[in-house]
Each structure stands twice: as C-alpha cells, then as structure tokens.
C-alpha cells in the first residue's frame, strides 16, 4: 500500500487571547436588559473561555459501542443522535409500507418575517408545487431555508472541506458541528440530513443571486458533501485524525453514495441573467451524487418579470408554470455586456412603455425583438 503523506501544515493560528475572546463573547449581550446581569455574564464568560482554551469541541460523549470499528471510542452525543436519525430515515425510505416522500426546498432567504418585508417568489412557487405533489398517499415535506435569515437559532455553518484532505475524514452525517468550544452551535444540518434521506424525490426551488445559487442553498449543498462518499464511522479515523483518514482512502476507499437513486427536480427563476447557469449548477451537483432527474421537464429555468421593476409583484401566486408545445420552453436571454447592464438599470428606474405586470403564476418572460424598440410580455400558453 502507498504510504499516506503527512498532512500539510503552516497556516497562521486563529487562536484568540482571553481579552479578545471575552470581548467577542460578551458582544452578543449588548442589550441594556442584560446590564443587571453583568456579574453573572462575567462568570459565564470565564466558563466559556475554559472550554475554548481547552478545545472542548464535544463536551458530552459516550462510547461508540457495537457496530463501529472502535467500540471504545468516545463519540459526541450530538453525532450519535444525528446518526440514529439518518438510519431511521433510511429504514422508512426503504420500507414499502411507508408512503413515498417528496421534499420541496425553498432556497430563497427572503420572507416577510424579516428585513425584506415580503414573501418570496420561490415560496409562492413552492406552495403551488406542494399542492400539485400532495396527491393521496404521498408525504410532502417542506424545507424552508429562509428560516436561516428569520428564525432565532437557525444556522448552517460552512463546510470545512474535510473531504479535500481525505474522503474518509468527511463523516456521514457531518461530525464537524456542533463545536461548542468555538461557539459553532445550533447547526440545522443534523435535522436536514434525515429529510434528504427519507425523501424519494427532492425538488429545489431557487432564485438567482449574482449568477449563483443563494447563500442558504449553497451552505446546504456544501454540507451535503458527506452524503457522497462520506465515512459513516468516525471511529475508523479516531475522530479527525487526518493521517489515519489518508491511510483509509489509499486502502481503496469504497466511496459510499448515501443518496443514490433518489429523483430530483430543479426550478430556477431569475429576473435579469444567470438562470440557466444556476439550473445547470444545481442539476450537475445532484447528478454527480447519483440522483436522477424526474423526467425531461424536471429541470426548468425561467425569468419572472424579466428586467421589470422588482417592486411590481402582485400578491397572488396565479397559475402554476406552463410549458409550450409539450417541450422545454426556450428562454429569452438578457443582453450581455455594458450596454445590457445599463439598459437593465434604466429599466428599473422607470417602466418602459407597454410593459405589463409580471406574475409568478403566469411565468411571463421579457424579451427584446430586434425590430421593435419596446419590451413585450411573452406568456407561456396553456398546455
């Protein structure tokens, strides 16, 4: 067997001194309501510093027990709970007596419950999809990633890229979080993993954010890397022993695909550019993990209110999106380059003559005819 290389070292240390740690820790209690509790908070900060300085990532553990490579290894109780939830979800997925399950994911961070003050188009599309998918005998579950921006204690911490060190170092489900010594807690992924495992079909609904998926969607995508080749036994690497993980990978790592065979649909909507790129990015990611598209029209990218004023969105969701002629609808594309960008900016400042309202249910597209100076709405006809 090829000898595993030593893990490369040399980056600057991120370790804080006690003064800086206390400053950051106490900054979350700036509300004057905490002023009478400063003495108590000071004692709590001292306890937190002790956990941080002694690197107590997982302060509560128990022996792994039977079924693991090292039954005497101390596993984090949080990871054991997530592992058991994933196994239960897999049993339900495989049980023919359980109803088929569809998971619909809202990738937009916009909602009326925080700064934007309005529900997203993605959520309105999700409600249409939920109604259509919820036929008798089908279990439909919703994962609303907007909660990351509007709900207390909802976090998806960033992937630490253990997989790039060695596939075996990336544990399934992820064992990087929670990390109590660093304050990286309340991680949502331990609840999200079982949702994906239980599902037979997954639908992603996502707007375009700067030619890319939204930040909530990308956080979830990155943290699902452990579902594709991840190690279901952290005791085999003695936790995060990078050298041991390299040795396991070089010993012919089996690369287990934990979500293989599920079907997917990807719905991407934009208002200027980038919808096709985002749709391809999401679909390619799912295909790489050996999920299968749910049919020839399961991957859609559309423009809703193409280059129209963003605030002009009626409250009704309207009808569900249609496609023309039984086949994929070709999208009009925004003009590229500086001229196209300038035209888009001018259009946002004032509505061009003849431009009607955009409706998410009608999935109207805006295009430019070379022989016509005005924008026109192009509604997809009924099937």
Could you characterize what this model shows?
The chain has 383 residues and is an alpha/beta fold. It folds into 3 domains: 21-54, no CATH class; 72-302, Flavodoxin domain (Rossmann fold, 3-Layer(aba) Sandwich), CATH 3.40.50; 304-310 and 332-383, no CATH class. It is 31% helix and 12% strand. It contains 11 helices and 10 strands. It has helices at 18-26, 38-53, 77-94, 121-133, 147-150, 162-165, 189-198, 215-223, 242-250, 275-288, 337-349, and strands at 61-63, 74-76, 101-106, 139-144, 201-207, 263-270, 292-293, 299-303, 365-367, 376-378. Strands 3, 4, 5, 6, 7 and 8 form a 6-stranded parallel sheet that branches. The protein has a two-stranded antiparallel ribbon with strand order 1-2. The chain has a two-stranded antiparallel ribbon with strand order 9-10. α4 links the parallel β3 (101-106) and β4 (139-144). The longest helix is centred in the N-terminal third of the chain and has 18 residues, at 77-94. It is globular, with a radius of gyration of 24 Å. It starts with 17 loop residues before the first helix and ends in a 5-residue tail after the last strand.
